[in-house]
Write a structure and sequence with these properties.
alpha+beta, BirA Bifunctional Protein, domain 2, Rossmann fold, 3 domains, seven-stranded mixed beta sheet, 16 helices, 23 strands, binds glycyl-adenosine-5'-phosphate
């Protein structure tokens, strides 16, 4: 669909899913606020991940560690020394760019010959490539790239100096590694087992872009799964399959819009022996929504070295100590949110609501999976002007509220109200009409088929619950 991203951004703002952060002050690049619908949908994504990765398993437990931690953690993890992107700047317009992104764009443009670069090897020397290309904004000269650390710095306590400097975490994973022993001892877990965490992460990205895809504050859902060395490759394969299944079977993302990208040796992070990305086909191209890495024993060994604490595991069966290997599936809530929006967005020209005359308007249908949809049920009196209908609808709304996220809407024609609910992906609309007053029945309208089913009010909760269970 043409301009799909613009349409999604506009819908997100118009209907209260996502706002640019600090908007009344002119905004702040790379930060977003989630509105009432957005926060419901985000919570649904997190709940579905937690349910699959923690709740349904015996071998994974949860954790919620602090965002600000001892700065030595980031020295041990390698983030202080190595968590860099290459930054370049235009000498004329002073716009800043990620050097590797400019090189990637050049590769994709097929214009390599124009700048006199032909081979992969030549492309790898980013400084040389940057020397040969011009600013994409104003064609000015670019300065040689320099390393830029992505961690946000802050200070703990009233004095701001080197001794109080620390960072906002750039990944939730380290909070898990440093609690490995605490969890092991208190939960009496045996390897293989995992620790899962959902929480905010912060990266001072040089160029945040593509709406929620690359932001400076985001939420990660990470699992560190500890295994016996030698069994790591088997578990790596297991988690790649398991995580792919979640996207297809639980989130109902179409298979053709997902793919697996295997990292080459050069692409691997400093801590990884192997890594694959699960990518989604966004309107701007394929993009990573989850990375699954074999982190080996790198992190625990580093923390053992830097903290001086023994982080070995005693394997009773083998009667020996070792540092476990770690398999890490790590995904971002906002990227999944954006993928689900792209997956669900549909436009129907000429209208689809049976109760209204065909219109020239384009109707938006957000075909979100029922589990993900922010509002589950809308309750609508047929006419606002009939007091009895309004009273009955409000009464039903109150009885449904403890069971489902509901909306009550009486404004505008019934067709318009159905369209408003279709646009935010509400799976069911309950309509209170004149028959309701006679025989205590209501209709349930299905978002996708637009079929209406008449049911008794006393059975409404049970029937709706069944509809949400059977997905
Ligand atoms: N602990 C491993 C780790 O952090 P990563 O590939 O850098 O690995 C994992 O990040 C996931 O976090 C990504 O797959 C993506 O979904 C999300 N993510 C990373 N950077 C992001 C950003 N700037 N904006 C939004 N999401 C991001």
């Amino acid at each position: 669909m043409e301009n799909l991203m613009e349409k999604i951004i506009s819908l997100c703002k118009r209907r209260g899913f996502v706002f640019s952060s600090s908007e009344i002050y002119g905004g702040i690049q790379g930060f977003y606020d989630f509105g009432s619908l957005g926060v419901e949908m985000k919570n649904n994504i997190k709940r579905l991940w937690w349910q699959k990765v923690v709740q349904e398993r015996d071998d994974v437990v949860g954790l919620d560690s602090a965002i600000i931690q001892n700065p030595n953690i980031w020295k041990a993890s390698g983030h202080v020394e190595r968590f860099f992107d290459l930054l370049t700047e235009c000498k004329s317009c002073h716009k800043r760019f990620r050097a590797d992104h400019l090189v990637e764009e050049l590769k994709n443009s097929g214009k390599l010959d124009e700048v006199g670069l032909y081979t992969e090897k030549e492309m790898k020397d980013i400084t040389k490539v940057i020397e040969k290309i011009k600013c994409p904004e104003c064609e000015g000269k670019l300065i040689p790239p320099r390393q830029f650390n992505l961690m946000f710095k802050t200070f703990v306590g009233p004095v701001e100096d080197e001794s109080t400097k620390t960072y906002l975490r750039p990944e939730t994973a380290q909070g898990i590694f440093v609690n490995f022993k605490n969890v092991l001892e208190t939960q009496r877990k045996k390897i293989p087992f995992g620790i899962a965490q959902i929480g905010k992460a912060f990266r001072n990205e040089i160029t945040p872009k593509n709406f929620l895809f690359r932001t400076r504050e985001f939420e990660q859902m990470e699992l560190e799964f500890f295994v016996k060395p030698g069994e790591d490759e088997k578990w790596f394969e297991y988690w790649v399959k398991e995580r792919m299944r979640w996207y297809v079977e639980v989130l109902k993302i179409r298979k053709e819009n997902l793919r697996i990208k295997v990292h080459t040796k050069e692409e691997l992070a400093h801590y990884a022996k192997a890594c694959v990305d699960i990518e989604y086909k966004f309107p701007f191209g394929w993009g990573e929504i989850e990375g699954i890495a074999n982190r080996t024993d790198f992190d625990l060994k580093q923390h053992q070295k830097f903290s001086g604490q023994n982080l070995e595991y005693f394997d009773e069966k083998e009667n020996k100590n070792y540092i476990p290997y770690v398999i890490e599936p790590s995904c971002g809530v906002e990227r999944i949110f954006l993928a689900l929006m792209c997956e669900a967005y549909q436009e129907i020209k000429g209208g689809r609501t049976k109760t209204t005359k065909p219109t020239k308007e384009v109707e938006v249908l957000l075909k979100l999976d029922k589990k993900v949809a922010p509002v589950k049920v809308a309750v609508l009196p047929l006419l606002k002007s009939k007091k009895e209908l309004v009273e009955k609808a409000k009464e039903i709304y109150q009885t449904l509220k403890p069971h489902f996220v509901c909306q009550y809407d009486e404004v505008g024609s019934i067709g318009r109200r159905y369209r408003r609910q279709d646009e935010i992906g509400t799976p069911y609309c309950v309509t209170v009409d004149f028959d309701t007053l006679k025989d205590s029945t209501v209709t349930i309208r299905d978002r996708d088929t637009m079929e209406q089913e008449r049911v008794k009010i006393e059975e409404l909760i049970k029937i709706l619950k069944e509809k949400f269970e059977n997905v």
